[in-house]
Design a protein that fits this description.
This protein is of the alpha+beta class. It contains five helices and four strands. It has a four-stranded mixed β-sheet.
Length: 218
């Protein structure tokens, strides 16, 4: 009986020790879980804060870039409007010139091509002018033997110097003469548009300042 009682007491003690250890393991496990959860929450909060700050920084940078781009576009649009308006006014002025003045201006322009076209056979395309008025002018500048033909023509495209002036009125800039050698190797622009190219390239800032009381800047 003593042996049985001792064995039972030993079993109970072992059981109690096991229960105690199990409870400790469970308690330690719960603490570890809480620690892990708390550590995760801390890390997540830090990550979230960093990502939020990074996102807000990127949004702020995008807003600044958008505002800068918008301001630049506004300045360019304003500049485009003003330069196109200046060209429209030049176009209006040219349209109001008497024909004799137009012919005089074209004579000066055509004379600049005399050296390069000397001794060549020329075909003349006359735009928005009376051929009967232009032909004598061409003969005067280049000589009667140089002129193969002189015919009325539809307007030719303006030169690359007018890229960016698409909103301007340019009807009168096409007025003039296009000269081409018989072999097609040389074409010279003798129009009012070509006449004012130096004015646009060299005096636009001066005109902008005079007309709008401000400089030519982007």
């Amino acid at each position: 009986m003593e042996v049985i009682r001792f064995t039972k007491e030993l079993e109970q003690k072992i059981q109690a020790d096991g229960d105690a250890k199990a409870q400790k393991i469970i308690a330690d496990g719960e603490k570890e879980c809480q620690r892990i959860i708390k550590d995760f929450e801390t890390r997540f909060a830090t990550f979230e804060s960093e990502r939020r700050a990074e996102t807000e920084s990127k949004i702020a940078a995008l807003q600044r870039d958008a505002q800068s781009e918008l301001a630049l576009k506004q300045e360019r649009l304003k500049l485009s409007f003003k330069t196109s308006w200046v060209l429209s006014q030049i176009n209006e002025y040219l349209g109001a010139l008497p024909k004799d003045r137009v012919l005089l201006l074209l004579e000066g322009l055509l004379a600049k091509y005399k050296e390069i076209l000397s001794g060549r056979q020329l075909a003349a395309r006359v735009v928005a002018l009376d051929v009967a008025l232009v032909q004598p002018l061409l003969i005067k500048v280049f000589g009667k033997d140089s002129l193969l033909s002189c015919e009325a023509s539809e307007p030719f495209p303006l030169s690359d110097s007018f890229v960016g002036y698409e909103d301007a009125e340019t009807t009168n800039l096409h007025v003039g003469v296009i000269l081409e050698t018989s072999d097609g190797s040389i074409r010279c622009n003798g129009t009012m548009g070509e006449l004012i190219v130096p004015l646009l390239e060299n005096n636009m800032e001066e005109m902008m300042t005079s007309l709008f009381d401000e400089g030519f800047s982007v």
